[in-house]
């Protein structure tokens, strides 16, 4: 399993340089209460306590005796997440401690942001940054925050790894390593059994190979022996050429991230297992490469899904919903208490909400509200989009039960979600995330590259949603 070693908090009793959090609104009063040398140093250096502003304060021997971290105001925290991560990026190696007047949620965000800021993808070039260590703030559950950071690092590593080293077989290896780490069971279906039992997964992936590490497969991991059943389904298209409806070069450049749904559910699975949530977890990943060969599936083909529905293929580049359909059909055969599907599915979702929001679809208003509140609480932003049933005729071509790529280009994310919904009709609660999985510009705690979306919000919401 490719894994950047996640950082750990320093020991609670470690000797640490203090970092004082200073809000902008209280700067004048705060300075008034400080000794004259510190006050003069802050004024001389123009310290204004802007969000993420860092000022090193020298001691008598000119070493850094303390650090001031500007916290900005309320509006700054609406615009910027993980303000404390800016200090982690600005400071050299060493051990630090944070102090200030923050809410419990803000302390957790500060601690997590510090850990996430140390991420560097150095598998092919460069060396890991010597990150400064943080003494865990009082009241923060260090083990939980470390587990969340580790899950996010796993997701980022998987998305960032090029397809030459992250094909279906490599994704299976990662899932097996994760299962072994947490004592989970894992089964993988491939070859003739896949062709018979999961015809859509096999059809999409057969052009890459019919055997060996590039061959399509269905990964099925299970963990836990009590509590409600949660099933996570992640799109594992390790590279997407578009098939015979070949993508142009500019659109193919980032297609190593088309397994971002699988990467996200594996990262979330680690968070769930590492924090010991009392539930039964099942992870289903259809792992394929959508390639071009003489055996590739064609526009106009009519395919039969695992649950018997027929699908007319009108675009081979709408392959993600095909492989997810078979996996969701399997999930529905043992109806979970909650099914969560995560996929880098449509460009329409990215156009609708941009790269920073994770759009999701569900008919369950209470579930939707719980996710929205959790996303706000843990600064993992989500946005609900509608499963608009009047659009159902758009995915009903007449020649088959379903159309994988309705013409016209309207409501692409919604019609994709409606398509998937046909395969979970016997599932009590279902939510589908259409994520982007990539951060196009560096931001605090979120470097450019692969990124998890929605996993932290889901983890936070699960105890209430599943009555754990």
From TrEMBL:
Record domain Cytosol aminopeptidase: where: 315-322
Keyword Transmembrane helix: no
CDD domains for this protein: Peptidase_M17 (cd00433)
Pfam family, one: Peptidase_M17
Family: Belongs to the peptidase M17 family.
Organism encoding this protein: Jannaschia seosinensis
Keyword Protease recorded: yes
EC identifiers of the protein: 3.4.11.23
Any GO BP annotation: proteolysis
Gene3D superfamilies from the UniProt entry: Leucine Aminopeptidase, subunit E, domain 1, Zn peptidases
Signal sequence segment: none
Gene name of this polypeptide: pepB
Keywords per UniProt: Aminopeptidase, Hydrolase, Manganese, Protease
Top-level EC class: hydrolase
Cellular component, GO annotation: cytoplasm
Superkingdom of origin: Bacteria
PANTHER family assigned: LEUCINE AMINOPEPTIDASE-RELATED, PEPTIDASE B
Molecular function per GO: manganese ion binding; metalloaminopeptidase activity
Name of this protein: Peptidase B
């Amino acid at each position: 399993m490719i894994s950047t070693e996640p950082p750990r908090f320093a020991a609670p009793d470690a000797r640490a340089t203090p970092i004082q959090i200073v809000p902008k609104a209280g700067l004048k009063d705060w300075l008034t209460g400080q000794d004259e040398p510190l006050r003069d140093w802050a004024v001389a250096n123009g310290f204004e306590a802007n969000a993420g502003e860092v000022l090193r304060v020298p001691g008598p021997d000119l070493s850094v005796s303390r650090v001031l971290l500007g916290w900005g105001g309320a509006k700054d925290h609406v615009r910027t997440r993980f303000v404390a991560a800016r200090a982690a990026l600005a400071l050299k190696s060493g051990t630090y401690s944070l102090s200030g007047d923050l809410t419990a949620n803000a302390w957790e965000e500060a601690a997590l942001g510090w850990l996430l800021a140390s991420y560097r993808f150095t598998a092919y070039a460069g060396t890991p940054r010597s990150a400064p260590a943080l003494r865990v703030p009082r009241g923060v559950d260090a083990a939980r925050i470390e587990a969340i950071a580790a899950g996010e690092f796993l997701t980022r590593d998987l998305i960032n790894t090029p397809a030459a080293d992250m094909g279906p077989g490599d994704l299976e290896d990662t899932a097996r390593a994760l299962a072994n780490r947490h004592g989970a069971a894992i089964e993988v279906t491939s070859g003739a059994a896949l062709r018979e039992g999961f015809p859509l997964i096999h059809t999409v992936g057969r052009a890459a190979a019919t055997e060996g590490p590039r061959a399509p497969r269905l990964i099925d991991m299970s963990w836990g022996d009590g509590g409600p059943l949660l099933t996570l389904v992640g799109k594992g298209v390790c590279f997407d050429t578009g098939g015979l409806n070949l993508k142009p070069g500019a659109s193919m450049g980032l297609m190593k991230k088309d397994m971002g749904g699988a990467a996200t559910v594996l990262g979330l699975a680690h968070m769930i297992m590492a924090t010991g949530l009392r539930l039964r977890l099942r992870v289903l990943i259809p792992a394929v490469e959508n390639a071009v060969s003489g055996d590739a599936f064609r526009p106009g083909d009519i395919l039969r899904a695992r649950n018997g529905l027929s699908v007319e293929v009108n675009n081979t580049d709408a392959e993600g919903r095909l492989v997810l359909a078979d996996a969701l059909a399997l999930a529905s055969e043992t109806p979970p208490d909650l099914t969560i599907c995560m996929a880098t599915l449509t460009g329409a979702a990215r156009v609708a909400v941009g790269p920073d929001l994770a759009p999701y679809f569900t008919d369950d208003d209470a579930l939707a509200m719980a996710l929205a509140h959790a996303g706000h609480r843990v600064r993992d932003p989500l946005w609900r989009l509608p499963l608009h049933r009047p659009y159902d005729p758009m995915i009903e071509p007449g020649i088959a039960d379903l159309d994988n790529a309705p013409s016209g280009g309207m409501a692409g994310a919604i019609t994709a979600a409606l398509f998937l919904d046909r395969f979970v009709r016997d599932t009590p609660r279902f939510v589908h995330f259409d994520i982007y999985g990539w951060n196009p510009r560096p931001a605090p705690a979120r470097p450019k590259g692969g990124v998890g979306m929605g996993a932290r919000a889901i983890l936070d919401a699960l105890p209430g949603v599943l009555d754990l």
